[in-house]
Amino acid sequence: xxxxxxxxxxxxxxxxxxxxxxxxxxxxxxxxxxxxxxxxxxxxxxxxxxxxxxxxxxxxxxxxxxxxxxxxxxxxxxxxxxxxxxxxxxxxxxxxxxxxxxxxxxxxxxxxxxxxxxxxxxxxxxxxxxxxxxxxxxxxxxxxxxxxxxxxxxxxxxxxxxxxxxxxxxxxxxxxxxxxxxxxxxxxxxxxxxxxxxxxxxxxxxxxxxxxxxxxxxxxxxxxxxxxxxxxxxxxxxxxxxxxxxxxxxxxxxxxxxxxxxxxxxxxxxxxxxxxxxxxxxxxxxxxxxxxxxxxxxxxxxxxxxxxxxxxxxxxxxxxxxxxxxxxxxxxxxxxxxxxxxxxxxxxxxxxxxxxxxxxxxxxxxxxxxxxxxxxxxxxxxxxxxxxxxxxxxxxxxxxxxxxxxxxxxxxxxxxxxxxxxxxxxxxxxxxxxxxxxxxxxxxxxxxxxxxxxxxxxxxxxxxxxxxxxxxxxxxxxxxxxxxxxxxxxxxxxxxxxxxxxxxxxxxxxxxxxxxxxxxxxxxxxxxxxxxxxxxxxxxxxxxxxxxxxxxxxxxxxxxxxxxxxxxxxxxxxxxxxxxxxxxxxxxxxxxxxxxxxxxxxxxxxxxxxxxxxxxxxxxxxxxxxxxxxxxxxxxxxxxxxxxxxxxxxxxxxxxxxxxxxxxxxxxxxxxxxxxxxxxxxxxxxxxxxxxxxxxxxxxxxxxxxxxxxxxxxxxxxxxxxxxxxxxxxxxxxxxxxxxxxxxxxxxxxxxxxxxxxxxxxxxxxxxxxxxxxxxxxxxxxxxxxxxxxxxxxxxxxxxxxxxxxxxxxxxxxxxxxxxxxxxxxxxxxxxxxxxxxxxxxxxxxxxxxxxxxxxxxxxxxxxxxxxxxxxxxxxxxxxxxxxxxxxxxxxxxxxxxxxxxxxxxxxxxxxxxxxxxxxxxxxxxxxxxxxxxxxxxxxxxxxxxxxxxxxxxxxxxxxxxxxxxxxxxxxxxxxxxxxxxxxxxxxxxxxxxxxxxxxxxxxxxxxxxxxxxxxxxxxxxxxxxxxxxxxxxxxxxxxxxxxxxxxxxxxxxxxxxxxxxxxxxxxxxxxxxxxxxxxxxxxxxxxxxxxxxxxxxxxxxxxxxxxxxxxxx
Length: 1114
What we know:
Layout (H helix, E strand, L loop, with lengths): L1 H5 L3 H16 L9 H19 L2 H5 L1 H21 L11 E2 L8 E2 L4 H18 L8 H14 L7 H7 L13 H4 L13 H14 L3 H17 L6 H16 L3 H5 L4 H8 L6 H4 L5 H7 L7 H24 L16 H5 L8 H11 L18 H11 L6 H27 L3 H7 L38 H11 L6 H10 L10 H26 L6 H17 L10 H10 L21 H18 L15 H30 L3 H8 L15 H22 L9 H24 L2 H8 L3 H38 L1 H6 L1 H13 L3 H5 L1 H15 L10 H10 L38 H12 L6 H14 L12 H7 L11 H4 L2 H12 L12 H8 L13 H8 L8 H17 L1 H5 L2 H10 L5 H14 L34
Antiparallel strand pairs: 1-2
Helix pairs in contact: 2-3, 2-5, 3-6, 5-6, 5-7, 7-8, 10-12, 11-12, 12-17, 16-17, 17-19, 17-20, 19-21, 20-23, 21-23, 21-24, 23-24, 24-26, 25-26, 25-28, 25-29, 26-28, 26-29, 28-29, 28-34, 29-34, 29-36, 30-34, 34-38, 36-38, 36-41, 38-39, 39-40, 41-42, 42-45, 44-45, 44-46, 45-47, 47-50, 49-50
């Protein structure tokens, strides 16, 4: 009511304000004698002050300005005389102003509301220049400086009074925007802000001489920190900030020449070192933890969060200007990258001040005064970062240091949040206690509201912290985007790209994804591309830079540990190979625990980034687009990263994880699935209940067998043995259930405590082993598979291009029958889902058939999926290639096989050749359909599909992926020829298909066919195989000789095989072989009367091994 009366006009606000001031000083009857009454007066004065600050028209007029100045002088006098009386909080609830009803607000706190009123009227006094000596403004300065004259850390007055200049106490619950708003500013005037407190600090230092008092506070903080660093020294940080602010203000000549006290300068300078968190209270873990708590835990967090990054920024700027931008001898920049630690591969190669900035940026808590828009009047942590990067020496690499520090901080915060969630997620009650759910859906979520938290009544998924995972993703993304242009290090660039997607996942909506793609396209063009081109000026070219980015993204997306290469990586690798050390840590002498884990939040951010980059890469066509075109360069860079570089790193990690998983036994899997903190007793062990149970079962088995043999069926069909067996089984089930209940009860926990020393040691060993198993089964494998799915889902062109890389290892994961993948159902599901995702990237076939294609691929392989192929060495002397790994051995399909029939039908129905990537991915289905003695219904077109794609082996449609399958395609046809069902195929026949497999380029500089490609024709399945295979091999060699006569004639092994078959007892083999011989030697193929040309002298050498051939005809 008083505020509304004051808004009626010029005379009104003067009369109302004077009346309130008189009541506060006791000048009127019935003065305000207690805190509760004064609290209402303070709130009214604050509201009137904000109204006047928001209406510049009232203070622009000289006469009105003079009257407001006199009014401010009187009000400040009243406030400074009354505020010392208010020592305690009020206790009576008050109805919120402008609430329009009965909404109850927290009680007015006289001391806090009075301080807000003091600041508002001091701001009015400065605006109206009513700041003379002994004025109300001067008395306000005395009130603020009073705690420093007799500093006492326990009373908290220094922190409250001077800290209120930065973070004014909350009072907005009583002053709505509509109540204090003016004609031009609907929210009312802003109280506080950097302009006010900088001016007030300058006046305090120069007029009230508080610098000595501030030095005393800093000394006290240093002394307390040296005794114990468990408590955050908030007063010391505030004192340092006030000193640095005065020094950097430049408001007067004395401030420009002002030198920081030695204690304060030393506390700040410690931030340039690695161990600054130990040397200075300003960077201590306790203070950083307090600064990171967020705005909802009290004013100290907001105060510390702000002063911390401003101290670093203002000090950096001041040093730069004082030295005219030249390096200062003996002084290190506060925010810097430490080269030695970077080369060693340390996870935190930055100074302590860089971490302090990261803490502030990860959970920013800008000071908020009584106006909702006042946050914009304070420099954010991002403004401070810009200042630091601008004024730090180039050698400091401040942007890189900030990115390293922020990435590590975000990762640590997310890990802590995940650990807390896991700890409380064992029951629904615990989950809801940690993350409560508001089921009153009839209300809209509050975005503001009372209290310093500003979170209103939001709960669960609607709460402000629900998607944050311990940090503020919007702030982190803003930091990464701002620092991208200043990055000089490849690993820092990788961190910036990941952080640019912090808080996002694959599941964000399309509009958000479009926005991310648009931003990333600009970032690639303006920031990443110049960085890569600059790095490409060296010997390795830009390939090394792009490969470095791909390797880092593979680590973040597909690994549980953040591995660093470092200078010692090669030495450590050699140690591992020699068996002298199995330590994979980045530094010598450190354990593997020093390598930080990668949080799920960082993993999700990486997969989201890959989704964005994949969307960009899909717009580049390597066959038709010019990578040097300026418009296409960003797309070409994304293509190179996502398709050429990244898949190889992901495949290596998946193969490594699969190898680890396949080495696990059933007991390992049981240990992995056992509860933590409980001694695991494997079934059959001597000291466990499982062993006793199995022993008892074994003892009971023999009598049961005897009883069963001697048991006779009574009348009525009753069998005594069956009845007893059923009863025994029921008792077993009941005992098992009872045991499970006991294990989850407190009694079981108490029993576990009574372990012998040997059992405790064993429990510790099991805990370490379980952690190693969890690293592979719960983190590495699921993350790798998820990253592969993410990349393939980003764009179908990207997915199709990566099919040859991902296909073999994805199939190996899907068909592996090791205990780990068989026993952990989620892994089996993930592996099949990944294979289905890859199948969906065969764009020639409808995506609805993707699961069917995946099932057909799984059926097409035998059990030895992830092992090296056990192919026989060719009897012709050709050894198998042990360096290459075949995902599995293709097996004959069962008959019938609906999924394979559907797959073959879809491939044939397409009517043309599939892309090389698609065919190489689906070829195992074709191969399996042509393997074995039985016809599979619906798969008759398999040979047609194979023969159709032979056109991609040479000529205009040649494809490198299909060309690499020539040997397997020929082997498949030869396998078909070894069975009688080969006669059922026509148009093409198997003979025609085999000849088509060896179509070659005409001319060319290199050999037309490699020795490994011809090998199937010369081995036990070809020239030394069954009759059909030998005839087909001879006809194919004749076809090859027509275009490449020297290839056949000058190869002793080929010559040997043809010459041998020229004397076979069977006419059809002999005829085909003699025809091939004549073609190879330039004779008329149809002229059987002409004697055969003699072989070379070398043809007899390969005959010797054939003397031991099992086939006697050979």
